[in-house]
Amino acid sequence: MCGIVGYTGHQPAKDIIIDGLKKLEYRGYDSAGIALLEEDKIVVRKKKGKIANLEKSIAGEKFYATTGIGHTRWATHGAPTDANAHPHINEDGSIAVVHNGIIENYMELKEKLENEYNIHFRSETDTEVIAQLLGVLYKEKHNLQDSVYAASKMMKGAYTFAAVCDQEQDRIVAFRKDTPLIAGLGDGCNFLASDVTPLLKYLDQIYLIDNGEMVVCTPNQIEIFDEDYKPVQREPLHVNWSVEDAQKGGYQHFMLKEINEQPKAVSETLGRRLDEEGHVHLDGISLTKEDLARIHKIDIVACGTAYHAGLIGKYLIEKFTGIPVEVDIASEYRYRDPLVDEHTLFIAVSQSGETLDTLMSLREAKAKGARVLSIVNVVGSSVARESDDVFYTWAGPEIAVASTKAYTTQLICLYLLALYIGRLNEHITEEYAQNILGELKLLPKKIQKILDHSSKIENMAKLLYNRPQVFYIGRGMDSAVAYEGSLKLKEISYINSFAIAAGELKHGTIALIEPETTVIAIATQDFLYPKMYSNIEEIKARHAHIISLVKEGHEEISQISTDVIEIPDCRDEVSPVLAIVPLQLFAYYMARERGENIDKPRNLAKSVTVE
Ligand code: M6R
Q1: Count of alpha carbons within 13 angstroms of residue 92, beta-carbon side
Q2: Which has fewest Cβ within 10 Å: 94, 314, 533, 603?
Q3: From CA 138, how far away is CA 97, in angstroms rounded?
Q4: Ligand 1 centroid vs 580 CA: distance in angstroms?
Q5: Is residue 606 flagged as an active site residue?
Q6: Which of 308, 377, 608 has the most ligand 1 atoms within 8 A of CB, as the residue to mutate?
């Protein structure tokens, strides 16, 4: 949560920083601000609300600074107000700071600064502590980088921050702890940012900053120091995402663009992993037959949509490999003292690779001896860097808060992994593996077919958008699809929604079904079709409005439903990749009809780097 941008060079910094913040607005958007090094003083401007509010409020002002820092906030400590917005400054305004994370001992530090140095705080944030602490340390050290290093040793928690000082023109000093930070290597200018998207316009070489490292940026140099304050020599990383990838490309919203990118994304994820003979080749994974013989169980750990991908992964891995799989929500896993040892394969699934709960669970499993494999979209992210093996989803940048193409590509990675392990331990035959691979290769075209008929779902949303609640049911892998469909709907349309395994409905939840309750019944698993038929009958008897999601030509359920959404015919094993697409479209069109802020839903952020 929260986005940081820093620029130092020879161009006016304000526009570059604001433009960069707009690319990071997905990380938080309840307030924004900038600090500019104008001649001998720091000028801070900050405003509650989106970056557009900040821009409007400074539209008439002229700034000449060529160095500055900026921030877009997702509030943790203190309400989203002008005063709590970043940057925060020390008492005499000589130092400004932007921060991403939570300082766990900020109360203790605050009391010390108030009692021993008579400092008066102006905000309710933990971040102001960094600015005030740097102010005190600077008086002693007369140097920003020494002060930042000293401050980093006094704080606990997650505290990636960037600071500027009016005594040190053309210099930004930043520190990374548990939330992301990269440095961008430009021509006569250098950047700092929470991720690569603000930089794509200017450069293609970046440094990944590791936990506990400090970066000092001037227009001509980027210096990195380790935890012991020793200089770090590191090769820059080449970034091959294009600027267009991070733009809307004519779509009304990033979410719609990303839904429509799924045929390409799935084909890319798959294509990179199949050799000419059609065998699965796992780049980034070095799991041998001997390694596998030591694995007795697999733990899949993730949050939100990535967790829903994990639920499907359990079905696939158990079916294709015969190895028991547990799936857990990361925030639960890390505090339940999980039974993990060197016989466990831990799989983290994460689009951003920065979700703090997932990262902490990974560390917990690693400390207990597990082998750690991650399925990640963002190259060089923390989860990727701390894993033994990384399997990239290659979905390209996902900007909308609601995850779509990252999810479908996570599923593809799980299919490939399950097939690979299944062949390695010979739980499945080559013939069966080739059958599934054949079906996977057909998915891009089949997804495209669903997208080509999206107007049916758009029209459905025009009739239903005012419904107060929409429930989702399914059996087997369709129950996981139901959870994901329901999450999509509630997070962007704010319609009350829950999902439940269809067979569980009658154990209590069916009490909520009334005439006109909307229920989306997902029935794409042929072997469970008769069971779903009975569950739908139970709901129909309570006069609910039933929308069934079935494979083409499955007439029986269609006949007892109010409305039907069809997906192209396919084997049961691969249907989750198709079934989610109409549900993403349904959520999107419902939210659009309601006039909601689809790409940036209220209270949410794309990357959740707090507990
Ligand atoms: O970056 P991650 O995949 O680790 O993020 C996990 C969840 O926060 C994320 O999937 C969230 O649930 C999505 N916004 C849902 O669309």
Answers
A1: 10
A2: 603
A3: 14
A4: 16
A5: yes
A6: 608
Per the CB < 8 A criterion, the answer to whether 391 and 373 are in contact is: yes
To which H or E segment does residue 326 belong? strand 325-329
Integer Cα distance of 454 and 451 in angstroms: 5
Residue reference for tokens 């033994």? 388
Beta bridge partners of 563: 547
Helix and strand counts by DSSP (H, E) for the chain: 19, 24
**C-alpha–C-alpha distance, residues 312 and 418, integer Å:** 11
For residues 208 and 216, give the distance between their C-alpha atoms in angstroms, rounded to a whole number: 14
CB-side neighbour CA atoms (13 Å) of 273:
27
| DSSP 8-state secondary structure symbol assigned to residue 124 | S
Please choose from 303, 393, 408, 598 the residue to mutate so as to test ligand 1's pocket, defined by most ligand atoms within 8 A of CB: 303
Residues 405, 446, 490, 606: which is the catalytic one?
606
- Of all residues in the chain, the percent with pLDDT exceeding 90 is 77
Q: In order of start, what are the domains of the chain with their CATH numbers?
A: 3-246 (3.60.20.10), 254-450 (3.40.50.10490), 455-593 (3.40.50.10490)
Q: How far apart are CA 279 and CA 430, in angstroms?
A: 9
Six-digit token pair at 255? 């979410």
Q: What is the pLDDT of residues 143-181, one digit of tens each?
A: 999 999 999 999 998 889 999 999 999 999 999 998 889
> Ligand 1: which atom is nearest the Cα of residue 303?
6
Pocket of ligand 1 contains residue 356 by CB under 6 Å: no
Identity of residue 247: Q
Quick check: 55 pLDDT over 90?
A: yes
Q: Global pTM?
A: 0.76
